[in-house]
Structure formats: structure tokens, C-alpha cells
Amino acid sequence: MNEVVKVLKERRSIRDYLSKPIPREILEDIIDCGRLAPSANNVQPWLFVVVTEEGRKRELAGLATYGKFIASAAACVAVFCEKDNPHLVEDGSAATENIIIAAKSYGIDSCWVAGYRRQYSDAVRKALNVPEKYELVSLVALGYSDKNAERPKKQLNQVLHWEKY
């Protein structure tokens, strides 16, 4: 099986992490993959804030309704896009997916926490000192884990149709 396809098929959302830091050069490479995601008209409207400091991770975990596990992650990546971009959700989501897949290729697990237009979005932006022209799209918890998520996925024949439904 192709290595990229293998990573895509093995990736699952993991919310329990070991207390092991991720080397800075790996984090930079992961973000570089996010930067290289496709964007509408190649506008590349994103901004990434990587948080590794314990207190700041706890602060983000406290803000995100369903992101309490961010506190125990080795890092959290906040993905922002320019508010005036009509494709900010699509572009930010493409960058987020690249980050998650790149992390998995390094053996780093992750969990995507929704950020777009959540009640905590602006508080996260302010906590990270991000200019008001940006909108939060997602928070991505990253970390090494010894857990294996066995959440079932639908079978291909349940979701695939050819030519028409």
C-alpha cells in the first residue's frame, strides 16, 4: 500500500497524549505542510499559531468547549484565516487536514477541534494576540500517544455511488 494512503487510512482522532515533547523542527515541517495546502485562487489566507507552553495550552483547553484534552497535548496549532476571504472555511480546513496528515506521518496523533464561529473563537484569537482581521478555523491538538482509537468507519459501499444516487 502506498505510504500516503496508509497514513490516511490509519489516522484517527486521539485525545489522550503522552507527556513527550514534539521537536521544534518537526512542528515546523508539519506547519509547512499546512502552508502548502490548496486555497481558492491561491490566496493562502492562513496564519498558524503553535502553542507548546503549558499555561497557554491550559488556557486554550479552558476556552474550547470540547477541547479539554488540549491541555495534555504536546502542542496545539490554532489555524486562522483572513475574515474577508469568502473561502476561509474551505481554505482553513484544507490546511488543517494537511497538518493532521503530516503529523500522523511522523507518528504524532491529533484531534481537530472546531473553531469557526464558536462562542470561544474570539477569546482564542485574543488570547493568542492574533489581529482582528483573522478568524479562527480550528484548533489541532498534537501529541504522541500509546492509545489506539478503534472507532468504526462506514464501509465504502455505504457512501460510494457511481454516476448518480
The general outline is globular
Percentage of residues in helical conformation: 25-40%
Mean pLDDT: 96
H/E element order: HHEHEHEHEH
Strand order of the largest sheet: 1-2-4-3
pLDDT < 50 stretches:
none
CATH superfamily caption: NADH Oxidase
User: According to CATH, what is the class?
Assistant: Alpha Beta
- Radius of gyration (CA) equals 16 Å
CATH architecture: 3-Layer(aba) Sandwich
User: What is the first-to-last residue Cα distance?
Assistant: 29 Å
- The count of DSSP E runs of length 2 or more, i.e. the number of strands, is 4
Number of alpha- plus pi-helical segments: 6
Number of domains: 1
Strand % is 15-25%
- CATH names the topology as NADH Oxidase
The secondary-structure class comes to alpha+beta
Largest sheet: 4 strands, antiparallel
GO molecular function, one term: oxidoreductase activity
Keywords: Oxidoreductase
Domain Nitroreductase: 8-70, 82-144
Protein name: Nitroreductase family protein
TL;DR?
InterPro entries: Nitroreductase (IPR029479), Nitroreductase-like (IPR000415). This protein is of the alpha+beta class.
Please tell me about this protein's structure.
This is Nitroreductase family protein. It comes from Biomaibacter acetigenes. Keywords: Oxidoreductase. Belongs to the nitroreductase family. There is one protein chain. This protein is an alpha+beta fold and 165 residues long. It has a single domain, classed as NADH Oxidase (3-Layer(aba) Sandwich). Helices cover 36% and strands 18% of the residues. It is built from 6 helices and 4 strands. Strands 1-2-4-3 form a 4-stranded antiparallel sheet, with helices on both faces. α2 (24-35) packs antiparallel against α4. The model has no long low-confidence stretch (mean pLDDT 96).
